[in-house]
Amino acid sequence: MIFSTLSKASLVLIATSFLLVLTQEAESHAWVECMDWKFKDPKKWSWLEKDGRCEGYARRFPVGEKPFGGLDSNSPHRHFEQKHNYPDSQPACSNGGNGQKKDTFDETLSSPPELAYRGKSRSGKSYGPMTVKKAGERLCIRWPAKNHQYLPGATSVYIGISGVNPTSDPTQREFINRRIAELDYNNCSNGSADLKPCGGCFNLPKDLQVGYYAVQWRWSEFVDEWYTSCADIKIIE
Question: Quick one: how far is CA 197 from the chain centroid?
Fold first, then answer.
């Protein structure tokens, strides 16, 4: 048999690698912790807590409810995984039960959009503020690594945007067609494999009109396994 020619160390390595793959597939998740990260020192780009602050969040994000990267253990949990069956045709934002897994946060569009930033979570934590920007300004987004840094084929984060003043969330295909940035998921500062902070920056389009826009952060770990976070941006003069 083939296994008889392998050393015990080789068999242990194969078994460990197999279990790691299974664990990653079972426990994979990702989400945005901050939609508008500001560096304390513009010349030192660091995603560590001591080196910046968050001025804008995803919809209904409970600030301070859990330490950075800890909302996957919350109820409802933060990460929204789109259904694997034709994910590009699935809802773009979580309504709490329309994904591969249930009991996620509600990240659907409010009317008016500000309502998604005024309430409180089940535990009484206030939702973080909406991002406010001018057209063409730089936007920096922050997320936890969650053990997924350097996974093969899992490097790109895609940012999509709606048209001005949407009355409902765009479909996933609409977000894809209105993609404005591609960021590196592996752009992380120091920390544990699970909780190290990562992020990326880009400039908003210069031709955005004054008004509200829905924005989607989207990342894939495996084929047809996509995670999204949805937020709103207010563009001012």
Answer: 12
Residue 65 CB neighbour total at 10 angstroms:
17
CA separation for the pair 63, 121 (Å, rounded): 9
Name the DSSP letter for residue 120.
Answer: B
| Spatial separation of the C-alpha atoms in residues 26 and 101, rounded to whole Å | 11
pLDDT in tens, 71-112: 887 777 778 889 998 999 999 999 988 888 777 789 999 999
pLDDT above 90: percentage of residues in the chain: 63
Residue type (1 letter), 64: G
**CA 15 – CA 88 distance, rounded (Å):** 34
Whole-prediction pTM: 0.85
Question: What is the enclosing helix (H) or strand (E) of 90?
Answer: none
Other CB atoms closer than 10 Å to residue 45's CB: what's the count?
16
